[in-house]
Specification:
The longest helix is centred in the C-terminal third of the chain and has 21 residues. The protein has 2 domains: about 110 residues, no CATH class; about 45 residues. The strands form 2 sheets. Strands 2-3-4-5-6-7 form a 6-stranded antiparallel β-sheet, with no helix packed on it. It has a 3-stranded antiparallel β-sheet with strand order 1-8-9, with no helix packed on it. It contains 4 helices and 9 strands. Helix content is about 25%, strand content about 20%. The chain is an alpha+beta fold and about 190 residues long.
Length: about 190
């Protein structure tokens, strides 16, 4: 049986194994705009010790309308790349302080910038995908359960009733994942 022309042309354009796999967003180091303190006045503030929180950065400078990140250099004695992102203030209607977004190099307003291949950019600039897109549909319950477990382990100051509700949801997710793998235990009394 002959190969359809669409498949033949597609295989010519994108041969298998020629391109590296797409990066996964959850595995890339990232900067969230809410983690940064954006000044309200017209002064410029620097954060020289930002490398303690973000190891891929050497320094950062903040103004009310832009953020300048200085990336680490690859070689000693050289100055690393400097990337500047404009900030867009979004009025929320809750209080006087606006919510900010970065304006990426591609022109999109984004809340999170990812570091990959030596530069900062949005998810679309890096052609990244979410972990859910890389996992088969039957494995998504396991992924959700591990995310929920990590959240519970990293948030020790949750209210007790919130923890109990999330633990119950975690148990439901694990039972759903266990059922999808076909390893569900039978009752001994049957």
């Amino acid at each position: 049986m002959a190969m359809p022309w669409q498949l033949r042309d597609g295989l010519k354009r994108r041969p298998k194994g020629k391109f590296p796999p797409r990066p996964i967003c959850e595995q890339l180091p990232s900067i969230h705009v809410n983690d940064l303190t954006i000044p309200r006045d017209s002064k410029a503030y620097s954060a020289p010790n930002i490398s303690l929180r973000y190891p891929f950065l050497a320094a950062a400078r903040f103004t009310w309308d832009a953020v300048e990140f200085r990336l680490r250099s690859l070689h000693r004695g050289q100055i690393g790349r400097v990337q500047t992102f404009q900030l867009k203030a979004i009025r929320t209607g809750f209080g006087r302080r606006p919510r900010h977004t970065f304006i990426c190099d591609c022109g999109r307003p984004v809340v999170r910038l990812y570091h990959h291949s030596g530069y900062l950019g949005c998810k679309r600039c890096h052609n990244a995908i979410n972990a859910v897109q890389a996992v088969h549909s039957r494995d998504r319950a396991v992924l959700q359960a591990t995310r929920l477990q990590d959240f519970l382990d990293n948030k020790p100051r949750l209210f007790r009733h919130v923890q109990e509700r999330l633990r119950k949801r975690l148990g439901d997710k694990l039972m759903r994942a266990q059922g999808s793998y076909g390893t569900q235990a039978r009752n001994l009394r049957e």
